[in-house]
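Backbone Fold Data
Goal — fold tokens
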Amino acid sequence: LLTKHIFLTHPIPIPSPFQSRSCVLGITRKTKERKMAGTQPLVKRTCVKKRTKKFARHQSDNFYRVGASWRKPKGIDGRVRRRFRGNIPMPSVGYGSDKRTRNVHPNGFKSAVVNNVSELEMLMMHNRTYAATIGHSVSSRVRKLIVERAAQLAIRVTNAAAKLRAEEDE
């Protein structure tokens, strides 16, 4: 029976591909986005994750046919399901992040998807908490209108430069 054990010799947690390294380490860094935008978050908290390592499926290290993505064990005699000591941990509510920093980007804002200018108006009173993210299917013409209106309302747009090309002189 082969088992793979990985012991970390350093105290730095390894981030998952879905979160930034600064968020995992509890470090805030000044980015060019923060320098160029006028609107600052109401409260800037460092987000600290309780667990950054992904939960692995039971026996995924023993068999190639068993994928590593988490599946809840459902067997009648399962050691992992019954939470015996020395087995892999199961995801539970206790691993959740702090409610105040959950879904908060490293820039300090929560994200709200905006598809038109009228949806941007809803963020007017919450411009220090939420930042607008322009939807994937929005045309470049409407994107330009959204970015202009967001500047008037002092709303941060996370992807303001997306799909905007420099106009060519004719």
The helical segments are 21-25, 32-36, 117-121, 140-153. The beta strands are 110-114, 130-134.
